[in-house]
Amino acid sequence: MDRKGVGVRHLFLLLVALLAGTSQLLVVDANSWWSMALTPIQRPEMYIIGAQPLCTQLSGLSQGQRKLCQLYQDHMMYIGDGAKTGIKECQYQFRQRRWNCSTVDNTSVFGRVMQIGSRETAFTYAISAAGVVNAISRACREGELSTCGCSRAARPRDLPRDWLWGGCGDNVHYGYRFAREFVDAREREKNFPRGSAEHSRTLMNLQNNEAGRQAVYNLANVACKCHGVSGSCSLKTCWLQLADFRRVGEFLKEKYDSAAAMRIGRRGKLEQVDKRFNPPTPEDLVYIDPSPDYCLHNETTGSLGTQGRLCNKTSEGMDGCELMCCGRGYDQFKMYKHERCHCKFHWCCYVKCKRCTSLVDQFVCK
Ligand SMILES: *[C@@H]1O[C@H](CO)[C@@H](O)[C@H](O)[C@H]1NC(C)=O
Ligand SMILES: *[C@@H]1O[C@H](CO)[C@@H](O)[C@H](O)[C@H]1NC(C)=O
Ligand SMILES: *[C@@H]1O[C@H](CO)[C@@H](O)[C@H](O)[C@H]1NC(C)=O
Ligand SMILES: *[C@@H]1O[C@H](CO)[C@@H](O)[C@H](O)[C@H]1NC(C)=O
User: Fold this and answer.
1) pTM score, two decimals?
2) Tell me: the pLDDT tens digits for 283-340?
3) Is residue 9 classed as helix, strand or coil in its secondary structure?
4) Most buried of the four, 130, 224, 260, 320, by CB within 10 Å?
C-alpha cells in the first residue's frame, strides 16, 4: 500500500473512534436482573426434585449474580419482589410524564431507553436497588431468610431512657449489604478500559445504585408501640422500621430533579460538567447523557412516544396537553366516570354510598 492509502486508513480509523466516543447508544447488556420482577419465583423448598434448578431458570443474571443466587437461593424471591416494588413506584412517580417508566415484555424490562445514560435511567437504577434493600430488610425481620434476622441496630442515643429498645426491627443493615453485593455484581464484573464511554456508564450505574440503597437505609426510622394498663402508654417498646416505600420514591424523585450531569475526567473518574454546583454526594443521582425528548416513537432510542397518552387540558405542567403531546395537539372525547357519592353515615356503624355516573371530558395526545 502506498503512503497515501495508509494515511486515508488512519483518518478512517480516527473517525470511527471519534464517532464511537460520542455515540449515546452504547451496546450495553440488554438483559437485567430486573426481569426477576416479571417471572414468578418460588421458594426453594417448594422445588420439585428433578425440576430445573432456580438459578439457571432466572434469565437476566450476570455471572456473579448467578453465583450469589446459588449461595442465597432463598433471597431470590425477595429480589424479585423488590424489583417489582421499585418498578411500580417508578411508574407512580412518572405517571404524568412523557417517559412513564413503562416496561417492555422481555428481559431488558425497560427496553432500549436504558442504553442512554440519562436522568431517567439514573432514577430507574436507584429505585430498583432501593426496592431490593427494602424487600430483603423486611424479609429478614419476618424470619424468611436463613442468613439474617431482626435488626441489631444500636439503641438510638436520643431515645427516652424509660422506653425499651429491641422489638424486632427491619434489618436494613443486612438489606443494604446484600443489595450492594447482588445489584452491583454485574457492574463490578465488567472490565472496561478506564476513561472509555462504557466505563463511565459503569461508574454512573454504581453511583445511582448506591444512592437508591442509601435512601432506604437513611429513611428507616424508629417506630414504637405502647404497653401498659389499658393503653396508658406508660411503657414503650421501639425498633427500627423501614419508611413507607412511597417516601423513598418521593425522595428519589427529588434526587432525580436535582441530578448532576457528569462526564469522564482525566483520571478516569466521573466529574461534574458544571463545576459551579456542589459536587454530588453518594446520596445523589448522576447522569452522563442528555435525555431524549420521549415525544415520538423511536426504535433507536427505545422511546415509546406520547401518542395516545391522556393529558390535562388545563395544566401547565408536564401532564398538560401542551407539553405531554409535544405541541402535536390532542383529541377530545367524553367518558363515563363512576364514583361513590352521597355517602351517609348510619348509626351504628356503617357508611352507605350511592354510585354516581358523570360524563367527563378526556384529552388524548395525537
Ligand atoms: C425487547 O422489546 C423491545 C420492544 O418490544 C425491543 O425493542 C427490544 O429489541 C427487545 N429486546 C430484546 C433483548 O429482545
Ligand atoms: C430516533 O432517535 C435518533 C437519536 O436521537 C435520531 O437520530 C433519529 O432521527 C430518530 N429517528 C426517528 C425515526 O425519529
Ligand atoms: C405509558 O406510556 C405508554 C406509551 O406512551 C402507554 O402505552 C402506557 O399506557 C402508559 N402507561 C401508563 C401507566 O400510563
Ligand atoms: C388538571 O390540572 C389542573 C391544574 O393543575 C388541576 O387543578 C386539575 O385537578 C387537573 N385535572 C385532572 C383531571 O387531573
Assistant:
1) 0.85
2) 999 999 999 999 999 988 889 999 999 999 999 999 999 999 999 999 999 989 898 8
3) helix
4) 130
Residue 10 C-alpha from the chain's centroid: 43
Residue 362 Cα, ligand 4 centroid: separation in angstroms? Answer: 12
* pLDDT of 54 over the 90 cut: no
Beta sheet of 270-272, edge-to-edge order: 270-272, 260-264, 286-287
95: buried, middle or exposed (CB in 10 Å: 19+, 13-18, 0-12)? exposed
Quote the cell numbers at residue 344.
351517609
Location of C-alpha cell 436463613: 146
Q: Which domains does the chain have, with CATH numbers?
A: 28-305 (no CATH), 310-366 (3.30.2460.20)
Ligand nearest to the CA of 113: 1
Query: 57: which residues sit within 8 A by CB, 6+ positions away?
Result: 39
Task: Report the atom number in ligand 1 closest to the C-alpha of 31.
Answer: 13
Q: What is the DSSP letter of 298?
A: B
Residue identifier of the C-alpha nearest atom 3 of ligand 4: 315
* 278-310 per-residue burial string, b: 16 or more CB within 10 A, e: under 16: eebeebbbbbbbebbebbeeeeebbbbbbeebe
Q: Does residue 172 contact residue 136 with C-beta atoms inside 8 Å? A: no
End-to-end CA distance of the chain: 57
Instruction: Indicate the top mutation candidate among 112, 295, 297, 301 to test ligand 2's pocket, ranked by most ligand atoms within 8 A of CB.
Output: 301
Amino acid 43: pLDDT: 67
